Amino acid sequence: MDFDKELDARGLNCPLPILRAKKALTDMASGQVLKIVATDPGSVKDFAAFSKQTGNPLLASEAADKDFIFFMKKR
């Protein structure tokens, strides 16, 4: 999937991946896509909830080895 910005949140535990994603999204234009790579298994639920709360659509999420990859679109 194409993306405009990438955030490496590997090694960070809740709530840091969400806080870093929130900060990254504020610097982006509407419609741009943020790719987030995290290692915290709790981030799967966290990013789903964050998407619902903020209205920024979670386009995709996948697990690859020990990484969890999310694609979020700025509303």
Task: Walk me through what this model shows.
The chain is of the alpha+beta class. The chain has one domain: Translation Initiation Factor IF3. It has two helices and four strands; from the N terminus they run E-H-E-H-E-E. It has helices at residues 16-26, 43-54; strands spanning 5-9, 33-38, 58-64, 67-73. A four-stranded mixed sheet has the order 1-2-4-3, covered by helices on one side. The chain starts with a strand and ends with a strand. The model has no long low-confidence stretch (mean pLDDT 97).
Quick synopsis:
The protein has helices spanning 16-26, 43-54; strands at 5-9, 33-38, 58-64, 67-73. It is α+β, with helices and mostly antiparallel strands. Strands 1-2-4-3 form a four-stranded mixed beta sheet, with helices on one face.
What is the arithmetic mean of pLDDT? 97
Rg of Cα set: 11 Å
Total helical elements: 2
Query: What is the highest CATH level, the class?
Result: Alpha Beta
Structural class by sheet pairing and helices? alpha+beta
Q: Would you tell me which CATH topology applies?
A: Translation Initiation Factor IF3
- Please report the distance between the alpha carbons of the first and last residues: 18 Å
Order of helices and strands: EHEHEE
